[in-house]
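Assess the record.
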Amino acid sequence: MQSPETVVASPASPVETIALDVTGMKCAGCVKAVEKQLTQHPGVVSARVNLVTEVAVVECEAGAIDPVALAEQVTEAGFPTQPRLGTNAGEKAKETLSPAERHALENRQQLRQLFIAGVLILLSGIGHLNQHFISFPAYFSPLTNIWFHWGLATAALLFPGRQILVDGWRGLRRNAPNMNTLVALGTLTAYTASCVALLFPQLGWECFFDEPVMLLGFILLGRTLEQRARGRAAAAFQALLALQPKVARLIANPTAAGSTPTGSAKGSDFGGIEIPVEQVRVGEWLRVLPGEQIPVDAEVVAGQTTVNESMLTGEPVPVMKQAGDSVAAGTLNQSGAIAIKATRTGKDTTLAQIVALVEEAQIRKAPVQLLADTVAGYFTYGVLAAATLTFLFWYFIGSQLWPDVTMLSAVGIESHSAMHAVMHHASGMGGETPPLQHSALLLSLKLAISVSVIACPCALGLATPTAILVGTGLGAERGLLIKGGDVLERVHHLDIVVFDKTGTLTTGHPIVTDCLPMGNFIPEILLQLAAAAESGTTHPLAEAIGEEAHRQELTIPLAEEFYTEPGLGVSALVEGVRVLLGNADWLTQQGISLSDSEQNQAQQLASAGKTVVYVAADGQLAGLIGVTDTLRPDAKATVSRLRQMGLRVMLLTGDRLEAARAIASQLELNPDSDVLADVRPDAKAAAIAQLQAQGQHVAMVGDGINDAPALAQADVGISLQGGTDVAIETAQIVLMRDRLLDVVKSIQLSRATFNKIRQNLFWAFAYNTISLPVAAGVLLPTFGLVLSPSAAGALMAFSSVSVVTNSLLLRKSLSTDN
């Protein structure tokens, strides 16, 4: 039988994706353990786990994996897991609690945990202050009594700390120690040593029951604050999920479903039957009333209204919708009752795809995180080794080299009043009161405990996912879909942004400006022939010629035998005449030559920034049509902003060089070095590859089918939402609004998010680099400074909270920039 490690899906094997909800993860080590469990399962190709969203995405051979069995395997490993159930074909996710109820329950649990942490820190802190700094009045004596602190420590371990101890033991038993393992070892060691001191006072050891109590208190406090911060980080994504409608109003007859409500059902005067939205099928008719969300992607068939599409585009201004217009699921119908015909349902709706894209983005890791993951996978073992070495060094070597360190370490960590209580207890039992000792064993134990606690890899595990969670959530709010942490890192390294011209830098709605007939042709006949030949295609130039013919109220002849050569032109048979339409290369290929005067006329049109369309009939040139496509209103500002950001901007087009240079001059681009013209669709990807071969990191901005190869070839592909589905699927960043300036905002957001990731990773590594030697006692011989276990726990908790808080500041910094 083949081992799990050697099971690899063949390239031809179809792959499916399974989503799992995983709980119980506390640090990057846990993430590594879960990923290991998943990838070891036969049939699994790859697995990615997100610590913050607690979601695992598993790619596996189609039909080879039972999601329930896979979830059970991870659950047995100590991480309760369940498959994420789909809601298509009427299958509803079986949840015991609604999202609102779950959120309320989590809030109550967090408040309870916060209260417990506060009580533990307060009570143990009173004892700690009394032992070292303050002499409390007599009525505080119960709170400073050694037996009270023993009881407090015992209760803390048995109740609020029980889950930590159990989970830590499970991790150790599974040979996958985690953060809880380190905390559990530290608290149990401190508690056990204090119990020995209490039960055997003749040893002369001190009791430090306040240390495990304060340690647990700070851990619980830190986790509560971290969890609440995580909730704020995920707020944008949760708001996106909440936009998904739950019900739809099905109507049977579109002719009775106009803007005027008729009929009744379920006590309503507006007609229709309410059904779960997942049961709606493509082609069915639905009614949407004012104030309701559009349940599915659809086409308006009756009525008129305004729709708030801000959840998709970030644009607050409502959009007018009437018969023939499309509407998207989750958008808000504001002013009128409408009837719609479903065009896309379930996971195919725009909103569902956005949710899937955002969730996928939060799972995909930035390459910079790979180092952190690799370190975190072995970090716990390293911490345990460091703690062991710390103990051995101070017990056998350090206390001998610096015999005074046990006295120096007494400042801030010795429990003098507790010691006196122990000695009094010993006297009462008839024993002799031992002399006060500063044990090398206790010092070594405390330093080892501090090392094991302070070096927990929590901050490393939270550094990347929290920043990506905030960044992608903010992007979704603003109509910018960024498809993962790896995209963020590539954006950060960009050198060049290459724009497609037609439909990207320009409006994509060209107009005919010139109609120059040749020979015996007249302008009207020329335009009729061109419009007839172009009626078989939807190219923007074809639409412009057709619109001009309609504007002049010309009759368009019937055409047949259409043929299109992408990037060159078209041909058709128009009333028995073979008509060719396209660029000069297309006519040359068809054996049609151009005279010098005809070429000069074409050159004059091109020099004016116009696209020249050559029209030939019966083997000879019939005329030239000049078409111009105006720049988008924000095109120049977009190019200027990108250049201010240190990026080179280039223009890539299949248009003639003269037309491309005219556009470049309007954008203040260098027409010689920043323009790539006469590039056929199949050569656009090669043009991008050539720039990359020069060591440049390239972003491509486009919107059409012919841009898809270039979008895929570029380091970062950016597609406008108005583009084709294939362009949107290929791109790594999708702009939901029809605004070119969003290219700038997407790059700014990506850069800011990646900077947060780097800041978080820097502070996480710096925290461990600085704090670990201090906890190990490097400052003790010279300065007499040492970290107590409780202080180590507080700093560890602070590091995790600070990383999440720093990610949350991303929202504020971007708001300030905008």
